Amino acid sequence: QQQATAQPDPAVGAAVKAADRAHVFHSWSAQGLIDPLAVAGAEGSYFWDYDGNRYLDFSSGLVFTNIGYQHPKVVAAIQEQAGKLTTFAPAFAVESRSEAARLIAERTPGDLDKIFFTNGGAEAVENAVRMARLHTGRAKVLSAYRSYHGATAAAINLTGDPRRWPSDTASAGVVHFWAPFLYRSPFHARNETEERDRALQHLEDTIAYEGPGSIAAIILETIPGTAGIMIPPPGYLAGVREICDRYGIVFILDEVMAGFGRTGEWFAADLFDVVPDLMTFAKGVNSGYVPLGGVAISAEIAATFETRPYPGGLTYSGHPLACAAAVATINVMAEEGIVGKAADLGARVLEPGLREIAERHPSVGELRGVGAFWALELVRDRETREPLVPYNASGEANAAMAAFGAACKKSGLWPFVNMNRTHVCPPCTTSEAEAKEGLALLDAALNVADEFTV
Ligand code: PMP
């Protein structure tokens, strides 16, 4: 049933790597200091290199292969679409595009029933912000410090964490605020209720001093992803919704990473019963098989552009091949109950397993997460909560995180390491046995991190 993927062959791997090093300019990297793994193939929760090494993928790529690699039904749908109509311009009604939009709108919360397609997450954020500015006639956008929204012009300025610093030449109209994070509370709160109330008061104060009439939008990741998987306290997002309504501010939820099953719901917004005005998505919409993202738009904002044109578009918006992959992915997710599988994997396997690991290792400061979306925050000292790596502009791993990451990879586990955290984000389709295998490898690798504690 499975397509033949490239077989291990060290000579081919060496050639792939040589061409890569000669000509591929990599993201987020000092080009002369990297040594990317040459990947020969992938299936389900695993991938392998040309030397025959196999890795269990606890990173889901960049947290996007929610249904795992090479799902035969999605691969077949892409092949079928390629045979029928590989590409077409955006200003036409195309079967896979209209069907993808229908399936997405059916699942998005509330009245987010119109879909603007992009090629990925950052473009979705760019367009959501433009829609909010055009809808309100206001310029400013508020976003959280501990956040990531993408690496294009507006999206990188909205990003709150140090990945913004090298590109922060002109944060035109962007104002950052602190969102709740009890473990490192910006408000010195002692419990979740205090954290929530103080965070909402801080947001209100920020709005008051920026001028409510100048603020187009507040953008938040429903659950901040690469910044650390911080689950907002109960009532926080509902409180932000209420504040937005009070001041006529557009509420944008960024579900690029948290959406499409990752949290055990179709969207993380469903966990909190909150409906934004605009919601960005990408990644899990088609498990990243073909680049696709988009903005789900409320009836009210869609109405703004009913007779007035929306002044924006992309050549490949709603690309037929990407949309065919989305249709197949969403159907597979529904047929195989993959959203429920993510919830189950989290509740039954990942949470108890990680809880046990977290307690045993002095390098683990906190465990956070839900579904197939978890983070272990590593510390030098559990008492002071001093991170295992200091923040810096380049986000480079220090010796401790590098040693931990290397230990994972050596054992056959591919981790998602960022700053002082390792994220546990396997495909939602990962079996219990695979997850347990990964947890055992993670457990062993954490012994290396423990050596760096006080
Ligand atoms: N928003 C969030 C929450 C993300 O996690 C990401 C990517 N990690 C983006 C936006 C940007 O998406 P892309 O890389 O597809 O542009």
Automatic annotation (TrEMBL):
Gene3D superfamilies: Aspartate Aminotransferase, domain 1 (3.90.1150.10), Type I PLP-dependent aspartate aminotransferase-like (Major domain) (3.40.640.10). Keywords: Pyridoxal phosphate. The keyword Iron does not apply. The keyword Transmembrane does not apply. InterPro entries: Aminotrans_3, Aminotrans_3_PPA_site, PyrdxlP-dep_Trfase, PyrdxlP-dep_Trfase_major, PyrdxlP-dep_Trfase_small. Belongs to the class-III pyridoxal-phosphate-dependent aminotransferase family. This is Aspartate aminotransferase family protein. It comes from Streptomyces varsoviensis. The lineage of its organism: Bacteria, Bacillati, Actinomycetota, Actinomycetes, Kitasatosporales.
